[in-house]
Write a structure and sequence with these properties.
The structure holds two protein chains of two kinds. Chain A is of the alpha/beta class. Chain A has helices at 3-14, 43-54, 88-97, 127-134, 149-159, 173-185, 190-193, 209-225, 228-235; strands spanning 19-24, 30-33, 58-61, 67-73, 78-82, 101-105, 121-123, 140-144, 166-169, 196-197. Chain A has a six-stranded parallel β-sheet with strand order 7-6-5-8-9-10, sandwiched between helices. Chain A has a four-stranded antiparallel β-sheet with strand order 2-1-4-3, sandwiched between helices. A five-stranded antiparallel β-sheet of chain B has the order 3-2-1-5-4. The chains are: A alpha/beta, B alpha+beta.
Chain lengths: 236, 116
């Protein structure tokens, strides 16, 4: 690996840029690829896109008989939970196990106490400011749990303007319908609504906070590993 | 915190290894990087795991549960010397022989390259 390439790779990681390092196993020649930023490309870029999506490094054999190792350098997964409510307790633990760096934003200190959330980053701020502090990116999942418009809506408005891979909102169908009406009044439309999973979580009949957390982790995982186009195709 | 538990891409370790490579390089040392590029069976470290070696034999990172590190470091020092890349298969260890291998019964392929 050339020192210049190593420096660029370190800079990309620092900038939380999704990058795939392609190394020709015969020549040792390395090349950095950015599949998330390219619309389409050659065989190599397409393969890089696949491994990046699967978050799984591996060797690909190209048509010309070249063996190339594709090394995925994805920024760490993160989850922002809005509302330090009961469900946030099992959800933050399960998300941590699944590999997410978790932060919870809630301005109500009696909820967001370190005693209730040991080891979890707590952001003591209004949700819109909290979202800004957290700086969500495309490796981020956001879950709103307060179902209080005063708290959830300002967070959602910020989050919808970012490129997070998952947005989920706790609340019944009725609550969710009203939420979308309020967001429409803020100028958001169908394309934005389609990004929001509401009511949050897979429909597995979850009742307890821990079960609801399981359903949310399941849905987040699907959004991560089988993102929108494939999802839509599978549903047809 | 959470990154250490990530299953498929061990983000924390990537960072340390690559940073160490850059640091050693900047200090004027000869450096080689070893990367697990394929695994079969119950290999202890996933594809993408890395180990960086400097000319004196110091290393950071891991490519197995400790079974093959010694052999990989030896090969990596060769790479620092001759500038050649190496692609090496490590198979199941034979407990009756003093041969390098993976006691877990897994197999892995390691790519070793100079940082130049």
């Amino acid at each position: 690996m050339k020192t210049d390439l190593l420096k660029q790779l370190l800079a990309d990681r620092e900038a939380k840029r999704q990058v795939v390092l392609a190394t020709d196993l015969a020549s040792g020649e390395g090349q950095l690829l950015y599949p998330a930023e390219a619309a389409a490309g050659d065989e190599l870029l397409a393969a890089a896109h696949r491994v990046m999506q699967a978050d799984k490094s591996g060797i690909v054999e190209l048509a010309a008989g070249r063996k190339v190792f594709l090394h995925v350098y994805n920024p760490s997964l993160r989850m922002l939970i809005v509302g330090a409510v009961h469900i946030a307790q099992p959800l933050s633990q399960m998300a941590t196990l699944a590999g997410y760096d978790v932060a919870i934003v809630d301005p109500r200190r009696e909820f967001a106490s370190p005693d209730r959330f040991p080891g979890v980053t707590l952001i003591d701020a209004w949700p819109d400011d909290g979202v800004e502090q957290f700086a969500p990116d495309r490796r981020t999942a956001v879950v709103t749990l307060t179902h209080d418009p005063k708290l959830d809506d300002p967070a959602l408005i910020k989050v919808l303007r970012s490129d997070v891979f998952y947005i989920g909102c706790l609340g019944s169908n009725r609550t969710h319908g009203k939420r979308l009406e309020r967001l429409a009044a803020e100028g958001f439309g169908e394309a934005d609504f389609a990004r929001i999973h509401g009511p949050v979580g897979l429909d597995i009949g979850a009742k307890s906070p821990a079960e609801i957390a399981v359903s949310i982790i399941g849905e987040v995982t699907e959004a991560l590993r089988r993102p929108a186009p494939a999802n839509a195709a599978a549903a047809q | 915190m959470a990154a250490a538990m990530t299953l498929e891409t061990d983000v924390v370790e990537h960072e340390k290894v690559l940073e160490k490579a850059a640091e050693w390089k900047a200090a004027g040392k000869g450096v080689a990087l070893a990367t697990v590029v394929a695994t079969w069976g119950s290999s202890p470290r996933p594809v993408g795991s890395q180990l960086v070696v400097e000319e004196g034999g110091d290393f950071v990172g891991s490519v197995s549960g400790g079974c093959i590190e010694g052999a990989v470091v030896t090969e990596a020092r060769q790479t620092i010397q001759d500038g050649q890349t190496r692609l090496i298969d490590y198979g199941i260890s034979d407990e009756t022989a003093w041969q390098v291998g993976l006691a877990c019964g897994g197999k892995c392929e390691v790519f070793i390259e100079p940082v130049d």
